[in-house]
Amino acid sequence: MVRVQSPLVRVLAVTAALALSGCGDGPVERPEGAVQLRENQPTPVGDVRLVASNIWDGSIALSVDDGDGAAESASLAVGERATIDGRSFELLSVHEHAAASAPGGSESYAWVLPVDD
Questions:
Q1: Structurally, how many domains does the chain consist of?
Q2: pLDDT at 70 over 80
Q3: Alpha carbon distance 117, 114 (integer Å)
Q4: Strand residues in the chain grouped as ranges (E)
Q5: Which residues pair with 39 in a beta bridge?
Q6: Is 39 a member of any domain?
């Protein structure tokens, strides 16, 4: 066991431990059926493909492509629902990764829940 003698070292150690305890994306419970969408990456969900783009400031542009013509889209903020192409979706949360990345390499993502109205 290491004994810390200096009060300053103790304060720094406790501060560091408290700061690190909030780091990371710990397990968060999501409703059943929730889907994680990486920015600009088409993701199959049922009989459609969803794409979350413009992940920014707690909102996204959500596109729904059913393979029958042009995709339809809507803007959503966290907690909002939208009906797109006859299907409803709720934006649960977003994780915005601000660092620059190569095209298709964004680490930003959103959690979306398909909703039965």
A1: 1
A2: yes
A3: 10
A4: 35-38, 43-45, 48-56, 59-65, 72-77, 81-84, 87-95, 109-115
A5: 52
A6: yes
